[in-house]
Protein 1
Amino acid sequence: MIETKVFNETTKPDAATRTAIIDFLYKHLEQFGDAWDDIARAVDYSLKNYESFGGFVLVSYFGNQMSGVVVVNRTGMKGYIPDNILVYIATHNEMRGQGIGKHLMKETLALADGDVALHVEPDNPARFLYEKVGFTSKYKEMRYKQAEI
């Protein structure tokens, strides 16, 4: 049975749980992940550990083991871009194919206040789950990166 716990600005995880969440994402996002510090910033944004619009972190457990994590950040831009961005979603690499991702996605969409956007690599197999629950591709994203000095 999948159990979930929601963390946000009023129900924050303790320091050990915060670190476990970040470590989980760092490991289980695999080739679609980011640097540990970048993941930590997204988690801290959702928990309003610094000035931000907040959001939430949804963690699933199978027994006592963490089985999945979702990080959603509010954009503060209601009306002209989606209200939320699903920054990260990952399931334990040994528990995939058991419906955990679908469960997390449905619960995330129910918890989110407003529309939700996400970015997905074209070769990410999770793209099919996102399409199944109703995500569509409206735009091709383009980015310009400033040169680092």
Note: The chain has one domain: 2-132.
Protein 2
Amino acid sequence: MAGRTRLVGTVVRLSVKYGPPVWVASQALREPAKEAVHKIIASERARKSALAHARTLSEGSILKVYRGDQSLWIVFTGDTAITVHPPTDVELGALLRGADLTRRIRPDDPLPPKERVRDATTSALRRGKPDAIN
């Protein structure tokens, strides 16, 4: 019983001391965390739709590129770029400028979960100028 009383006392003391700063920090970080999660979800949806589109093409493949802090998936048939998911107003040539075409993903070659998580985290935390193309 003495151990429980001491534990409860320690928890109460620490929550009174550190509770308010933790609450303020959680309120301040709530929106950036939501934004990061929404970016991950949007990128995964775009990847799935791009993979589905690439499966319908002969020699279909996809490539992830970035426009500012947004990740885009370009669909290829052979070596020709067809479209981009999610749709954007930027030309495919501008998106492909400087991209490494050897990193394309074929629908038959699944990406390991560890790589997908790393890729999603990178795109969610990526920060850039809104109109920058990189």
Note: Residues 37-125 form one domain.
Protein 3
Amino acid sequence: MNIEKLIFSQKEGEGMADLLVRDLMHLGVVTCNVGVSICEVAQSMVDNAVHCVVVLDEAGEACGVISDLDLTKFYGREIKSLTAEDVLEGNVIIVDPNAPISAAMVIMLEKHIHHLVIMSEPPLHRPIGVLAASDVVKKMAESCGIK
């Protein structure tokens, strides 16, 4: 599993275009280990009312994200023997909380992903949040002022 780390400098200004990842991300992360069964991953999503779980390797580093959409690929199949590692695809993309939302959206669109893992600064370097495309859409709707 490859990890792409993207760090951006803080952007000054006002308005939605100048928001940073930390302004919209969900603090706290639901995690699991690579060896956890997919059944436990699915139950964790339901119990925590989240759409993704960050998968940690043996060292506690993020090595992937499993979304509810990823799990639906296994609908109708026997999943009891599958683990989180069996479901992981592609690279995990980690982003600095000071990245501009606009840069995060470019990454999501280019990589065709819906969730970015937000990491703390070293030396801990642990997942501290998740930015979902739905977080950005919610902010867009709020900016329209329609209720």
Note: The chain has one domain: 3-144.
Protein 4
Amino acid sequence: MNIVLTRHAKSSWDNLNLTDHDRPLNRRGREDAELVAKYLATYEYTYKTILCSTSKRTSETLEIFLNYIHKVDQINYLSNLYHASAETIRKEITTLDTDGTYMLLGHNPGIEDFLRNLHKDTSLKVPTCSIALLSNQNNYLRLNKLITPKELKSQ
């Protein structure tokens, strides 16, 4: 099993009347999402399921990613992923089949906490629009690679 754990791209604070849930991406967020999506497309994954928080910024991040994704069998928008804890993320991952490739789009601090627990590294940082490539081998979930927009821009 492969999992692409994704933190949403940078959101806009231009309209302070919007709820946190309804904040869209800003220009940098859209640019970063496109950059990361192009990188991710090189893996040519076929996703069995994509799990996405219901927030505007995660759904907009996913919309940009879908322009570059090879194939998706199913997309589920889940309200429990909106500011989900590391434990909620773990529970969602354990519901997935043990084969195939999946994506989960969510928020910090849950994603960062989940990866810190997994990788046993409390200094690990997950900036906006970062992707963590995880694999499950012999019932052991492993962080293979963490990719940030800043890293991709420097290449």
Note: The two ends are 28 Å apart (CA to CA).
